[in-house]
Amino acid sequence: MNIFVANLNYKIRKENLESIFAEYGEVTSAKIIFDRDTKRSKGFGFVEMPNEEQARKAIAELNGAEWEGKVIMVKESEERPGSGIASAEESV
Questions:
Q1: Could you tell me if 91 and 20 are in contact, meaning their C-beta atoms sit under 8 angstroms apart?
Q2: Is residue 73 within 8 Å of residue 5, measured between CB atoms?
Q3: What is the pTM of this model?
Q4: Is residue 65 classed as helix, strand or coil in its secondary structure?
C-alpha cells in the first residue's frame, strides 16, 4: 500500500520517515518530496508498505499524531487520473 504523509517538519528526511513507519511493519520505500528549484522539502512524502493490515494500522495510529512539532496527516494515497502519480484526495 502506498501511504501519503503530509504536514511534515521540513527537517524530516526519508530515513526518519522510514523508521517511524517501520515500527508498524515492513517498509519497502519512503521518500520526501523536494522542490526542484530550492531543493527544500515540500513537507510531504510517501511510504510504501507491502502488508495492507500493517499499513492500515500505521495510518490509523499516525494520522493526527504530533511528530517533530507538527500534527501530521496520514492516509492511503490515490492515483491522480491520467497522471500515474499517487497523491492525496485533498490538497495539503
A1: no
A2: yes
A3: 0.83
A4: coil
Axis-axis angle for helices 52-62, 14-22 (nearest 10):
110
Rounded Cα distance between 68 and 11, Å, is: 9
CB of 74 closer than 8 Å to CB of 24: no
CB 26 within 8 A of CB 49: yes
* Rounded-to-integer distance, Cα 16 and Cα 47, Å: 11
Q: Which amino acid is at 43?
A: G
pLDDT, one tens digit per residue, over 23-80 is 999 999 999 999 999 999 999 999 999 999 999 999 999 999 999 999 999 999 987 6
